[in-house]
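#lab-general

N.A. 3:47 PM
ok so I finally got the sequence cleaned up, no stray characters, all 208 residues accounted for. can someone with queue access submit it? mine expired

B.Y. 3:52 PM
send it over

N.A. 3:53 PM
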Amino acid sequence: MTHILVTILDLGGTFVFAISGAVAAVKYRLDVFGVLVLAFAAGNAGGITRDVLIGATPPAAISHLSYLGVSTLAGLLVFFWDPVVMRHRHAVLWFDAVGLAFFAVAGAEKALLFGLNPLMAALLGMLTGIGGGMVRDVLVMQVPAVLRSDLYALAALVGAAIVVGGHVLGIHPVASTIVGGVACLLLRYMAIRHGWHLPHAQSSADQT
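B.Y. 4:20 PM
back already:
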């Protein structure tokens, strides 16, 4: 049951993050090959990193064609329908938020499945969530969202921690996954809409 749940979450997160990567590629006027490359990178970087770290090799993203197929489908949809997608000014942000929620809970679930302790499973869930967005931003020469966005990594960590907490308490994984995913998405949504953020470091220039 948990294997099926992780696969569904992985493919869902891959699709949504691939859309965010393709939207970023279209925004920067990349050609169709560039769109597909960025879609695959954004959709699979977090999952590949997670699988390598827990020893699930070869990573699912390169051993199962379904991940390539989902990424390609997302890239082509955005490439051919970019006027529809790009009408929404914050399209990358919203797709990124959904992908973050999918991968944060999927990463935590898979880490638990491979026997990691709860603390490390929560941290790996966070890493899985932020990985695709980081690679996407680096490839289009932006500062990664995790370093500049409000409640980004923290939202992923909260979602992953709820999944881990549910596991420790013996709650059914589907229930804890839904709650964790919704919590992550809600935190990110509120941060985007209302500018919620953690305290920023003050430089000497800010004080003059």
